[in-house]
């Protein structure tokens, strides 16, 4: 029901001679209910693109549409539309207020929205969300420092879901986690996406994860999208030389990265 | 008149590079702090000060006003413990009486400074950009002038007297509070939880009240307390100059100014006043310190403990690795690393034994906290106190590095130093911090040649340029004269390698050398490492959390889990799924593969899972 | 585990922002700030006198002076002109070096300042030299000795002593020195400026507390530097401790020490006001106190401007020195 569209989006940092275009004319559609991966190396502009979609960064040009509403510089009613786009950040250490209990962090969305049901109602909603992300609702009073990295990231997801988003942007949400924890968070994201029928833009540098998780993938380089297509086909059979280079550089178990010499 | 407390202010270099983390330090709590020596001292002195401020004028006010004209500027006596002043009045009674006025002006000034400063400091966060810029500009200009000068200027405007002094000092101190608030506030405002709140649609006021204030409050309180001491001193100074409180009222400063004229006759008066002022100053400093501890603003100072007795060295057999290599460049036996805790010691690396053969590429893989990096640093003799390192034996290139079972960073003579410097090369994780930012890259690379190679500065430089070229740094001649920040991440990592190649390394220890790099850059750095290994036969110890990377780059893999080495297997066995230890298997399974089924669930290791099998069991 | 996905942005140099270019931009911006600061300084100094409740001339001459004398004085000072004209004249006077005449001494303010300025500058810069020469080595040595929780006793002693010294204000140290050297022994002169020995006590009074405070800051900075990865890199080269600290740590401490030095210089210059009063040091500080007390506003005004200019110029020089030492800071700034 909800589609996120980037139309010729440019984002510029700085001004004058030291300015730098982090995103250069991106056209991208994240179709309704799809999980789209956005991959690229550092400085490719993928995070900036996501930040532009939620209004943390004003694009210098172009439109960002939620269905058919342009949310660039949104105020009033369009701001409510933009609130349907929520974001989960990379570092759960920094994305949860250390002085706020995790329950209060999740509850904030209801308070800000002025949701009915009073305090008790909001508490019940928080409990439901904590259960949804497989955390004990009794821990609502805990501070983020009492949680492990993986648990904190699940709280971040719950907080984003509290805003009842239609579109979720996940910015490197597992890159600060150990592999053993990564799977739990990714499985949660996958399940939530299916259950709530969310549209998800999944930003990552890990192509193996994107290939397994996403329906489609877009490859970004130097602020531009160089290749888009179904995840498996782009990654298994890349067309653009940059994508080919990127995929060739990924180490695979059982395939020596370089020819092994005679020494062993 | 600076309000700089080095411990509560963010370190200057810190502030430039990292957001200030004001929240991760432990809070000791008020109860515990009150019982600590510093808490007791702060409480006692503060209560004394408060007592005299409240009761001083009541109890001694009258005595203080009585002039004995027969005793002008008299020396101390039983009757007048600090003697009398030029008007024949008892100095001690006046000192005690003046406590109230001296403290009042200091506290009023602090209140003004803090309220003006906090408002001015936080305004830019919520106000429209234009107003924010204007406020910032004013703060910046005001900060350029020393507070005491500002205070004099303001006191000229407001005239002398209690209110004038408080206003003068309060307004003069406000800019530095504003800047402190601003720095703290900006660092919090830049964090992701504030971004998240904005995305949720929280308004500026809500963000300020719910997210920013709670996170900047503690350091502000601590600095306000320390600032009260500064204000007291400043108010005293102004009064001392005759610009503060005017007759007939008197505070310590005015009294000190007057007593100085008769310092030859009755020095006790001046000294008594000095003591009172210092005591009050120390009280506020102590209170600030105590508050800082209670609120956890301070860095905890590490308490040093006696080393734990070296593990298992008493007569027990030397532990053997799972796989012994014949021609080992490095053999480690029973390596243990421990760190001091509140109670006793915690073991971070637990009796690890392994060999690295000449020309081998051995990977060490494990998750964060598994002890893999510590193992490397211990082998390189780079771990320092408070960590304690012990081992039955660490033999590197036919030299025993473990001295008496201990293997810290203690000096072990010039020869060993030269051997470690030239035969062992190190590449660390973060190329942006592992090169010295204020020394030219070429000079840093050349240094080993000068230190251990007996080369002249010129020769060392020439070799450094040659090595930079050999790690494929283009135009090495020019690049050698540049600073690290002019290099890209991959180039810095290659320069680190060039540094190691100044000698004739038998072993390169690479601790997560590509974790901070993009995959394409990672490949370049690895290909270089591989090349060095192939062409010079240099062994490589390669630490990584990425099991696919380790298995595709290394010949043999050591798997670490919670400080123990759980498995030692060939990369081929690992790739073929012949891992024995359950943790190795779980770890291998949890890595997403390029050929996993799209849309399938990710394999996980349950958060509470424990792999407590005997490590030896997993050995082949 | 840092992640490669959103790691560092491309180095600025790589974006075609040359170093020379950034330096020029930096100095340009810095000069702009200086201009704003000077405007603020002069404006404040101008209004400082105008904001005094009542008539400054009447204040200065006392209630006994006749209205005619007051009026004549007002006229000669230009106080009857419209405010904007007075402001303009003030600027004009500043540029031409004419700061008016002192009320009490009836000599041009610029002459008085010219006579008194060198004494204050000597005192401030000598003290700064002492502070830097003491606090930087002490801070580094103590940091080296106590790093990683070593030598708890040294740590405790140093922290207590330096903490105590840094809360004692310069004028109390001054009073203490006067007591010791005037009342007990007469080795060193306690008043006036005559010969090298007369510098000792005022410089000591100014620098003791500040040195203690600054050495604490240097120590914290040094501990931070010792924790950096590049120090580990240097240790991996197996060099002597001395070389490690002097060659690898010190250059990185200089910038932060210099930054703190700038703040310290400001407080030293302000401290001269008090110290000069105690030691009857014939500098600007003594003069401004007298001027304010005797309501000699033109003189006070002139000295405020000069003090402000000294601080501003010193800050400018320090900022430029910082950029020369560490070109990255200019890049970062722009």
From TrEMBL, chain A:
GO terms for biological process: peptide transport; transmembrane transport. One of its GO terms (molecular function) is ATP hydrolysis activity. Keywords: ATP-binding, Nucleotide-binding, Transport. SMART domains: AAA. SUPFAM superfamilies: P-loop containing nucleoside triphosphate hydrolases. The keyword Transport applies. InterPro entries: AAA+_ATPase, ABC_transp_ATP-bind, ABC_transporter-like_ATP-bd, ABC_transporter-like_CS, Oligopep_ABC_C, P-loop_NTPase. It comes from the Bacteria. Residues 4-247 form the ABC transporter domain. Belongs to the ABC transporter superfamily. This is ABC transporter ATP-binding protein. It comes from Aeromicrobium endophyticum.
TrEMBL record, chain B:
It comes from Aeromicrobium endophyticum. Residues 332-587 form the ABC transporter domain. One of its GO terms (biological process) is transmembrane transport. It holds the Pfam family BPD_transp_1. Belongs to the ABC transporter superfamily. Belongs to the binding-protein-dependent transport system permease family. It comes from the Bacteria. It is a multi-pass membrane protein; Peripheral membrane protein. Keywords: ATP-binding, Cell inner membrane, Cell membrane, Membrane, Nucleotide-binding, Translocase, Transmembrane, Transmembrane helix, Transport. The chain crosses the membrane at residues 38-61, 106-127, 139-172, 220-243, 263-286. GO terms for molecular function: ATP binding; ATP hydrolysis activity. This is ATP-binding cassette domain-containing protein. PANTHER family: ATPASE AAA-TYPE CORE DOMAIN-CONTAINING PROTEIN, OLIGOPEPTIDE TRANSPORT ATP-BINDING PROTEIN APPD. InterPro entries: AAA+_ATPase, ABC_Ni/Peptide_Import, ABC_transporter-like_ATP-bd, ABC_transporter-like_CS, MetI-like, MetI-like_sf, P-loop_NTPase. It is found in: Cell membrane; Membrane. Residues 99-292 form the ABC transmembrane type-1 domain. GO terms for cellular component: plasma membrane. Residues 297-320 are annotated as: Disordered.
TrEMBL record, chain C:
Its main location: membrane. This is ABC transporter permease. The keyword Transmembrane helix applies. Keywords: Cell membrane, Membrane, Transmembrane, Transmembrane helix, Transport. One of its GO terms (cellular component) is plasma membrane. Belongs to the binding-protein-dependent transport system permease family. The chain crosses the membrane at residues 34-52, 125-146, 158-179, 199-218, 253-279, 299-325. One of its GO terms (biological process) is transmembrane transport. Pfam families: BPD_transp_1 (PF00528), BPD_transp_1_N (PF19300). It is a multi-pass membrane protein. It comes from Aeromicrobium endophyticum. PANTHER family: DIPEPTIDE TRANSPORT SYSTEM PERMEASE PROTEIN DPPB-RELATED. Residues 117-318 form the ABC transmembrane type-1 domain. InterPro entries: BPD_transp_1_N, MetI-like, MetI-like_sf. It is found in: Cell membrane. Gene3D superfamilies: MetI-like.
């Amino acid at each position: 029901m909800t589609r996120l569209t980037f139309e010729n989006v440019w984002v510029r940092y700085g001004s004058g001679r030291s300015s730098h275009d982090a995103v250069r004319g991106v056209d991208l559609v994240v179709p309704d209910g799809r999980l789209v991966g956005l991959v690229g190396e550092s400085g490719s502009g993928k995070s900036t693109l996501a930040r532009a979609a939620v209004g943390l960064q004003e694009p210098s040009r172009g439109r960002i549409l939620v269905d058919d509403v342009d949310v660039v510089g949104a105020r009033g009613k369009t701001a409510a539309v933009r609130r349907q786009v929520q974001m989960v950040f990379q570092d759960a250490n920094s994305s949860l207020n250390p002085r706020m209990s995790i329950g209060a962090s999740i509850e904030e969305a209801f308070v800000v929205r002025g949701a009915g049901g009073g305090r008790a109602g909001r508490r019940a909603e928080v409990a439901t969300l904590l259960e949804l992300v497989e955390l004990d609702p009794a821990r609502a009073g805990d501070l983020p420092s009492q949680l492990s990295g993986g648990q904190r990231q699940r709280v971040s997801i719950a907080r984003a879901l509290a805003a009842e988003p239609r579109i979720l942007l996940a910015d490197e949400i597992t890159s600060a986690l150990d592999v053993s924890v990564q799977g739990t968070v990714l499985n949660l994201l996958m399940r939530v996406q299916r259950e709530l029928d969310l549209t998800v833009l999944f930003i990552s540098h890990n192509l193996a994860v994107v290939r397994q998780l996403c329906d489609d993938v877009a490859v970004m380089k130097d602020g531009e999208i160089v290749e888009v297509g179904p995840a498996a086909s782009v990654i298994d059979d890349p067309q653009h030389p940059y994508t080919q280079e990127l995929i060739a550089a990924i180490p695979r178990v059982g395939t020596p990265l370089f020819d092994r010499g005679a020494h062993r | 008149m600076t309000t700089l407390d080095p411990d509560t202010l963010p370190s200057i270099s810190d502030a430039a590079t990292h957001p200030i983390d004001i929240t991760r330090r432990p809070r000791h709590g008020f109860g515990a702090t009150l019982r600590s020596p510093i808490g007791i001292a702060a409480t006692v002195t503060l209560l004394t000060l408060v007592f005299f401020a409240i009761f001083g004028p009541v109890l001694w006010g009258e005595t203080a006003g009585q002039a004995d004209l027969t005793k002008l500027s008299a020396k101390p006596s039983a009757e007048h413990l600090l003697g009398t002043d030029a008007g024949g009045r008892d100095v001690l009674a006046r000192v005690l009486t003046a406590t109230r006025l001296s403290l009042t002006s200091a506290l009023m000034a602090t209140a003004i400074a803090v309220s003006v400063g906090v408002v001015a400091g936080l305004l830019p966060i919520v106000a429209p950009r234009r107003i924010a810029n204007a406020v910032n500009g004013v703060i910046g200009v005001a900060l350029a002038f020393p507070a005491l000068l500002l205070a004099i200027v303001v006191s000229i405007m407001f005239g002398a007297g209690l209110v004038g002094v408080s206003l003068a000092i309060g307004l003069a101190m406000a800019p530095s509070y504003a800047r402190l608030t601003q720095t703290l506030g900006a660092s919090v405002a830049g964090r992701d939880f504030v971004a998240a709140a904005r995305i949720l649609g929280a308004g500026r006021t809500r963000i300020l009240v719910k997210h920013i204030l709670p996170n900047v409050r503690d350091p502000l309180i601590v600095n306000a307390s320390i600032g009260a001491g500064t204000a007291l001193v400043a108010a005293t100074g102004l009064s001392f100059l005759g610009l503060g409180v005017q007759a007939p009222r008197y505070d310590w400063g005015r009294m000190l100014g007057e007593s100085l004229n008769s310092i030859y006759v009755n020095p006790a008066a001046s000294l008594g006043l000095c003591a009172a002022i210092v005591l009050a100053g120390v009280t506020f400093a102590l209170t600030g310190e105590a508050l800082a501890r209670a609120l956890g603003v301070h860095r905890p100072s590490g308490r040093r403990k006696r080393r734990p007795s070296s593990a298992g060295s008493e007569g027990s057999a030397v532990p053997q690795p799972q796989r012994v290599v014949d021609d080992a460049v490095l053999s480690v036996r029973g390596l243990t690393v421990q760190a001091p805790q509140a109670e006793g010691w915690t073991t971070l690396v637990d009796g690890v034994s392994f060999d690295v053969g000449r020309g081998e590429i051995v990977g060490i893989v494990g998750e964060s906290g598994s002890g893999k990096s510590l193992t490397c640093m211990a082998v390189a003799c780079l771990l320092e106190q408070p960590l304690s390192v012990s081992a039955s034996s660490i033999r590197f290139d036919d030299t025993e590095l473990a001295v008496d079972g201990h293997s810290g960073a203690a000096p072990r003579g010039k020869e060993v130093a030269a051997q470690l410097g030239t035969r062992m090369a190190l590449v660390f994780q973060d190329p942006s911090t592992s090169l010295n930012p204020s020394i030219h890259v070429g000079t840093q690379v050349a240094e080993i040649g000068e230190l251990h190679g007996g080369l002249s500065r010129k020769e060392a430089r020439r070799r450094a340029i040659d090595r930079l070229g050999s790690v494929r740094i283009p135009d090495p001649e020019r690049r050698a004269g540049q600073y690290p920040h002019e290099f890209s991440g991959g180039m810095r990592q290659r320069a680190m390698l060039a540094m190691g190649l100044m000698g004739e390394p038998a072993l390169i220890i690479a601790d997560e050398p590509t974790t901070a790099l993009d995959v394409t850059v990672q490949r370049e750095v690895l290909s270089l490492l591989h090349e060095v290994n192939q062409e010079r036969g240099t062994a490589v110890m390669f630490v990584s959390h990425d099991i696919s990377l380790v298995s595709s780059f290394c010949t043999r893999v050591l798997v670490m889990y919670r400080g123990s080495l759980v498995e030692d297997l060939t990369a081929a066995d690992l790739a073929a799924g012949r891992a024995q230890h359950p943790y190795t298997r779980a770890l291998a399974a949890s890595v997403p593969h390029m050929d996993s089924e799209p849309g399938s669930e990710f394999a996980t290791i349950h958060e509470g899972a424990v792999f407590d099998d005997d490590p030896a069991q997993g050995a082949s | 585990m840092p992640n490669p996905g959103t790691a560092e942005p491309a180095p600025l140099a790589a974006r075609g922002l040359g170093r020379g270019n950034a330096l020029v931009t930096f100095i340009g911006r810095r000069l702009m700030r200086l201009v704003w600061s000077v405007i603020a300084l002069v404006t404040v100094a101008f209004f400082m006198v105008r904001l005094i409740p009542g008539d400054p001339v009447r204040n200065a001459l006392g209630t006994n002076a006749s209205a005619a004398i007051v009026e004549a004085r007002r006229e000669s000072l230009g106080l009857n002109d419209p405010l904007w004209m007075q402001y303009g004249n003030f600027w004009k006077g500043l540029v031409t070096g004419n700061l008016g005449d002192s009320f009490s001494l009836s000599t041009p303010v610029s002459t008085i300042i010219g006579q008194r300025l060198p004494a204050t500058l000597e005192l401030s810069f000598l003290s700064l030299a002492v502070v830097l020469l003491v606090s930087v080595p002490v801070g580094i040595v103590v940091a080296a000795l106590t790093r990683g929780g070593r030598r708890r006793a040294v740590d405790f002693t140093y922290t207590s002593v330096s903490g105590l010294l840094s809360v004692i204000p310069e004028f109390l140290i001054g009073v203490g020195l006067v007591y010791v050297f005037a009342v007990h022994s007469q080795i060193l002169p306690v008043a006036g400026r005559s010969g090298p020995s007369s510098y000792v006590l005022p410089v000591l009074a100014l620098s003791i507390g500040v040195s203690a405070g600054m050495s604490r800051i240097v120590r914290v900075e040094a501990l931070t530097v010792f924790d950096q990865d590049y120090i580990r890199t240097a240790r991996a080269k197996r060099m002597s401790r001395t070389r490690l600290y002097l060659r690898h740590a010190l250059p990185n401490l200089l910038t932060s020490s210099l930054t703190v030095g700038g703040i310290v210089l400001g407080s030293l210059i302000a401290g001269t006001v008090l110290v000069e009063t105690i030691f009857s040091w014939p500098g600007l500080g003594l003069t401004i106190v007298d001027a304010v007390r005797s309501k000699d506003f033109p003189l006070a005004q002139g000295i405020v401007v000069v003090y402000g200019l000294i601080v501003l110029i010193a800050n400018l020089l320090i900022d430029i020195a910082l950029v020369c030492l560490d070109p990255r800071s200019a890049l970062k700034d722009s």
